[in-house]
# Entry
Amino acid sequence: MRNQIITQLLFLTFLFPFVSSAQLTVSNGLTAVQLAQILAGPNITINSATLTGGAAASGSFDGTSSNIGMAGGVILSNGDLADAPGPNNSNGGNANLGEPGTAQMDSMAGAISFDAITLEFSFNLQSDFIQFQYIFASEEYP
# Structure
């Protein structure tokens, strides 16, 4: 019995690194309206949408094979979206897209910001309730 438990624990020990290393997958090239519709979900009509920032900094993600906690959604980055899946093994590893920041971020940070990405949209609800789920992730703030 003891040998069986030890064998099972060893099996789980070797299995765990493979289970926990699943990756996020990302896709870019979506329009502002497409991103807004992914974010808004069903029963919400998108009236207009505007996306400002670098072309490589926005898209969608599939998180079903990752530990991010969401099946999918919109990803906005101040770097290259291709870097989002990782691995993140260096400080400041994101690309400099050469895009400007925003006055609002400059004011909040007390410094000049760079590579801002903004998705703004207006919508009509088909009900009296709306909910958004989001995750803030950063290589600077673990």
About this structure: Strands lie at 25-28, 44-52, 58-62, 72-76, 118-125. DSSP finds three helices and five strands in the chain. Residues 1-21 have pLDDT under 50 and may be disordered. The first strand starts at residue 25 and ends at 28.
